[in-house]
Design a protein that fits this description.
Largest sheet: 8 strands, mixed
Number of helices: 16
CATH superfamily of the largest domain: Bira Bifunctional Protein, Domain 2
Bound molecules: zinc ion
Radius of gyration: 28 Å
CATH class of the largest domain: Alpha Beta
Strand order of the largest sheet: 1-5-6-11-10-9-7-8
Shape: elongated
CATH architecture of the largest domain: 2-Layer Sandwich
Number of domains: 3
Helix content: 25-40%
């Protein structure tokens, strides 16, 4: 075959069967968990005004500086493909005046995000996330609720052996104190920092903590901890969250240099890592962002959330446990003259909820049998002169090697038994 003329873009592969179906099953299992926690689903657009992201994620972050897909539309407006879900949801929360209804809004979302990073295993330029947000209040119980929801989603998907890492970044005041101490420390170590971090240690010092370069990581390891700079209220919230998690039997590890690579986080931040993933080991991450709604022009209200990376998840879950196994049936007429009856029967099975099809390729009867066997179809339903006369069909179970003459109703029962 000739080389294809067109290929999908680097880092933006097609999601083809069976992967696409596995992702649907993952999303649906997560939906079931969200339902029990009373989250409502939201779908925000893939494109937003660029400022929605630069204002929230932060100008000096890797995402905004290097990874966003931004361009000018025909009307001269600067727009970007969403690199994450939270900024759009807060934009939507403010735009629709949800805060006027009072109380807490709990939302979940599913869909693709876009970041122009170097593609690697589990990291694509178009990638899929499952996320949740609780907007309208701030308390250690809400932090615990969102973390327990994340745990329930992961357990629902059969993910095992993961570790929850937590930290607190404190409130705005704490951060001012901390960034001062961090900047002073980094100034002494400036010679060991990369050029980006040299600049960031002056413009947005917290972002030095996310640098992935070895030299910077070494410097960061010895840096002062944000936990030493928490005010009394933030300290007591942090302790309260840890107590609730212990009571709920949720294991966690405190990681003092966990800051997440986005500017909007305040207070609790967390990450779920999996040992089988090597250096890029996060499968989910999130935290509190109590100042973002106000920063984006809305009311002063607390919020927290997380996102799970589906491509990372696919590296750690047992895919066989996730996807349903279809016990498909193929209806084969014994002789071309029974094609019409076979076609009717196929559609009757479908109307009864049985995954079922005919082979329309024009193969011989034997060819159709061979193809069904080769493709691992569970059932073959034969319809010939004898069957039509007796008002029955011959159901062959290809896995067990058995065959039975059954009425249509009996055949439906038989085929349904194998549907999961
Ligand atoms: Zn504080
Ligand atoms: Zn650096």
């Amino acid at each position: 075959m000739a080389k294809p003329k067109y290929k999908s873009l680097r880092g933006m592969p097609d999601i083809i069967p069976p992967e696409a179906e596995i992702i649907s099953c993952i999303e649906n299992k997560a939906r079931e968990v969200f339902r029990t926690f009373c989250y409502s689903e939201i779908r925000t657009p893939l494109l937003e005004e660029t400022e929605v992201f630069t204002r929230s994620i932060g100008e000096d972050t890797d995402i905004v500086e290097k990874e966003m897909y931004s361009f000018t539309d025909r009307g001269g407006k600067n727009i970007s493909l969403r690199p994450e879900g939270t900024a759009s949801i807060i934009r939507s929360y403010i735009e629709h005046g949800w805060f006027n209804t009072g109380g807490v809004v709990k939302l979940c979302y599913f869909g693709p995000m876009f970041r122009g990073e170097r593609p690697q295993k589990g990291r694509l330029r178009q990638f899929n996330q499952i996320g949740a947000e609780i907007i309208g209040a701030s308390s250690p119980y809400i932090d615990a609720e969102i973390i327990l929801n994340l745990e329930a989603v992961l357990k629902g998907l059969g993910v095992e052996g993961f570790t929850l890492l937590i930290n607190s970044l404190g409130c705005g005041k704490d951060r001012d104190g901390y960034t001062g101490a961090l900047a002073a420390y980094l100034k002494e170590k400036e010679a060991y920092l990369c050029d980006d971090c040299k600049r960031r240690s002056r413009s947005n010092v917290l972002r030095v903590l996310d640098c992935k370069r070895e030299g910077c990581k070494k410097v960061v390891k010895e840096a002062p901890s944000v936990l030493e700079h928490l005010c009394e209220a933030c300290q007591s919230d942090h302790e309260a969250l840890k107590e609730i998690l212990v009571e709920m039997g949720m294991d966690f590890t405190e990681k003092k240099d966990l800051v997440r690579g986005l500017d909007y986080y305040t207070g609790t931040v967390f990450e779920v890592v999996h040992p089988s993933l090597g250096s890029q080991d996060a499968i989910a991450a999130g935290g509190r962002y109590d100042e973002l709604t106000r920063e984006m022009g809305g009311p002063d209200t607390g919020a927290t959330g997380y996102a799970i990376g589906i491509e990372r998840l696919l590296l750690v879950i047992d895919k066989k446990k996730i996807a349903r196994e279809h016990a498909e049936a193929v209806v084969i007429p014994v002789g071309d003259e029974h094609k019409k009856e076979a076609f009717d029967l196929t559609n009757k099975f479908r109307a009864s909820g049985i995954p079922c099809q005919m082979d329309h390729s024009g193969r011989s009867f034997k060819g159709q049998m061979r193809k069904a066997d080769k493709e691992g179809k569970r059932f073959v339903v034969l319809l010939g002169e004898d069957e039509i006369k007796s008002g029955k069909v011959l159901v062959k179970d290809m896995k067990l090697g058995e065959q039975k003459m059954l009425t249509f109703e009996e055949a439906v029962e038989e085929l349904k038994r194998e549907q999961v």
